[in-house]
Design goal:
Layout lengths: L18 E3 L1 E9 L5 E6 L2 E6 L5 E9 L2 E10 L4 E17 L1 H4 L18 E9 L15 E6 L9 H14 L3 E7 L11 H4 L3 H11 L1 H27 L9 E5 L1 E2 L10 E11 L8 E5 L2 E2 L1 E6 L2 E6 L7 E4 L7 E11 L5 E2 L5 E5 L2 E4 L2 E9 L16 H7 L9 E5 L11 H15 L7 E4 L14 H11 L6 E4 L15 H15 L11 E8 L2 E7 L7 E3 L7 E4 L5 E3 L1 E5 L2 E5 L8 E4 L9 E3 L9 E4 L11
Parallel strand pairs: 1-7, 7-10, 7-24, 8-10, 24-25, 25-26
Antiparallel strand pairs: 2-5, 3-4, 3-6, 6-7, 8-9, 11-23, 12-20, 13-19, 13-23, 14-18, 14-21, 15-20, 16-17, 16-19, 21-22, 27-28, 28-33, 29-35, 30-31, 30-34, 32-33, 34-36
Helix pairs in contact: 2-9, 7-8
Protein name: Sialate O-acetylesterase
Keywords: Hydrolase
InterPro entries: Galactose-bd-like_sf, SASA, SGNH_hydro_sf, SIAE
Length: about 625
């Protein structure tokens, strides 16, 4: 092999700024000329190996001690060398799932401004894998990814859950912490599974076969995109037909659902405007305009100047008004809102205000609007993030050779169309990942879905079923499930309180992986007894203390049903760790459940450490005694 042809290579995971997992062994791997011998040096160790006939090689350092920065040096028999600088040795975790795991710190900056003022931490690093799909088999390396040190310049890009988890672990362990964030908004559990597993499910197998046929997939996606663009062309034509005279505007009170003022199942474009008076000292000043969230996309103007636009419903509308736009006296705010699926809204219980210097001008209340309907909903464009196996092969597979301490998993929202299949598929995914990491007891910490309701009117009890599936995943060895019922926001799929979500996951890691005697789970149902119309539930708490009730009697979220499956509210009593309930409507209880709604909030049960009990649904026909599996 000629020296000018570079053959010695490392994967992107093993690059400048990486954190390698310490322990009994630490794997390094890469490519070289077939049969070439390679020498490696790291810390105080030197090892060697030889590439196989395909040029693949791997080598193991043993019992490396935490610390850094170090230099990883490689040299091949050909004379090629590689020096990887700024290498740390410590603990590495996978952070995976969908948007609530991917959500960056920039999205929660207003809730945690002090975090952006802190000094960096060279011993805390994040490796973010960029979005990529592959349906024909596992990639050996990431298409785009890199390690970044936690610093004031990079913190905004860090996943919020990852950031806070890493921060808590740095405080607890003191060793370098490396987090591999391999998550993507909107992704389904099936997207993180391989073809062999997917083939067991006819619905998913057919979808994967389509994705593997590049021509058919491109034709299908092109057709969907074209139909969507044509729909939007119609929207633009409707805008041109609007009458901007003052007498064409109608009054409305915002925030509100469009159906609340007669636009139920509305698809089309609606303009809102509001006129506000500003004092002279604000003329020309910069300002911030907060407009909650909206469904679906918007363009927002102040005095005719476009100050911001958002292409879909979830991001908060927080727009900057530049200098020279605001005027003394009357100012006009206009919002062009496009509603694609008949569920338009300006989301209630959000902040709607203009912040200028020290003044806050509240924008709730009287607005005006005019609208044009396009008739049918916007044609659907499939989300690639929900296609089976695509993210498993395209984003996750290159991570398998990299030794890790455990996995944090926050996902489930995108499976609420088929919640009954989630339990089996989630557990199968966990077992698959363990197989691929060659670690049959690889620890998993699952963040159970929080309270949420605003977009779930047609989903019935989908989220309780997802939570139940997550709870039952806890029957697997080395799986912990954290309960987050009190950390969500009923009107937002992406709640801001990521710090507490991460803290609860860090407690689970400390207890399950490091054996610390910390309380990491709330009360769990350990047993129950049925006597005539009464059910007595026995809970356990890690601190062996009684149940704690917040915001009610503690009975509000319990329900009982007979053989007909019709549930009724209960009466009863709570004493220490026992809950005794009955319903005058049910003489022979067959089913009972707790917090079986999308957004339970009254009378939740906690332990004294402030951790809530998991929801559950129990059939007394299936068994007389229940072990929660938590």
């Amino acid at each position: 092999m000629e020296n000018k042809e570079k053959r010695l290579m490392l994967p992107k995971l093993i690059s400048h700024g990486c954190v390698l997992q310490t322990g009994e062994r630490t794997r390094i791997w890469g490519l070289a000329a077939p049969g070439e011998g390679i020498s490696l040096r790291l810390s105080d160790q030197e090892i060697s190996c030889r590439a196989d006939g395909g040029g693949n090689w791997e080598a193991y350092f043993h019992h490396l001690q935490p610390g850094g920065p170090f230099i990883l040096e490689l040299s091949g028999e050909s004379g090629e060398t590689i020096r990887v600088t700024d290498v740390y040795l410590g603990e590495v975790f996978i952070c995976s799932g969908q948007s609530n795991m991917e959500l960056p710190m920039n999205r929660v900056k207003d809730r945690y401004p002090i975090e952006f003022e802190k000094q960096g931490d060279a011993r805390f690093r994040l490796y973010k894998v960029k979005e990529n799909y592959e349906f024909h088999g596992p990639l050996k390396d990431h298409v785009e990814a890199s390690w970044k040190e936690c610093s004031p310049d990079t913190i905004g890009e860090f996943s919020a859950v990852s950031y806070f988890f890493g921060k808590f672990m740095r405080e607890n362990r003191t060793v370098p912490i490396g987090l591999i964030n391999v998550s993507l908004g909107g992704s389904s559990v099936e997207a993180w599974m391989g073809e062999e597993e997917i083939s067991q499910y006819p619905d998913m197998k057919k979808e994967l076969e389509l994705c593997q046929n590049q021509k058919l997939l491109e034709e299908k996606m092109a057709g969907q995109i074209k139909a969507h663009e044509e729909w939007y062309n119609t929207i633009r034509d409707l805008e041109k037909s609007m009458d901007w005279n003052d007498n064409s505007w109608k009054e409305v009170t915002l925030p509100a659902f469009l159906k609340d003022f007669g636009l139920d199942h509305f698809n089309g474009v609606i303009w809102f405007r509001k006129r506000i008076m500003l004092p002279r000292h604000l003329e020309g000043k910069k300002a911030r305009l907060w407009l909650g969230t909206m469904v679906d996309s918007d363009r927002t103007y102040v005095n005719g100047v476009l100050v911001g636009e958002t292409g879909y419903q979830y991001p908060p509308r927080k727009y900057n008004v530049p200098e020279g736009v605001l005027k003394a006296g009357e100012n006009e705010i206009r919002i062009c809102l496009v509603c694609e699926n008949g569920a338009g809204r300006v989301t209630p219980d959000k902040i709607y205000a203009l912040f200028a210097e020290e003044e806050v001008i509240v924008l709730d209340g009287r607005w005006e609007y005019q609208s044009r309907s396009v008739g049918g909903a916007a044609p659907r464009v499939d989300l690639m993030s929900q296609k089976p196996a695509g993210l498993y092969y395209g984003m996750l597979a290159p991570c398998f050779p990299y030794l890790v301490k455990g996995v944090l998993w926050y996902q489930g929202e995108s499976n609420d169309e088929r919640p009954d299949s989630y339990e089996e598929r989630l557990q199968q995914m966990i077992l698959l990942w363990r197989k691929m990491w060659k670690e049959e007891s690889l620890p998993f910490v699952i963040a159970q879905l929080p309270n949420f309701s605003i977009d779930l009117d047609d989903k019935e009890d989908a989220w309780p079923r997802i939570r139940e599936a997550q709870r039952k995943a806890g029957v697997l060895k080395n799986v912990a499930v954290t309960v987050n019922l009190d950390l969500g926001e009923e009107n937002d799929l992406h709640p801001l309180n990521k710090r507490e979500v991460a803290y609860r996951m860090s407690l689970a890691v400390r207890a399950m992986i490091y054996g610390e005697r910390v309380i990491f789970r709330g009360p769990w149902l350990s047993d129950f007894d049925v006597s005539e119309q009464w059910i007595t539930l026995f809970f356990e708490t890690e601190d062996k203390k009684g149940l704690v009730v917040r915001g009610g009697t503690g009975l509000e979220e319990f329900e009982i049903a007979g053989a007909d499956g019709v549930y009724y509210s209960v009466t009863g009593v709570i004493k220490e760790n026992q809950v005794r309930i009955c319903s005058s409507e049910v003489k022979q209880p067959v089913f009972f459940r707790y917090c079986w709604s999308n957004a339970p909030k009254i009378g939740l049960l906690y332990n004294e450490a402030g951790l809530p009990a998991s929801p559950f649904g129990i059939s007394t026909l299936s068994y007389r005694k229940s072990r929660s599996g938590q």
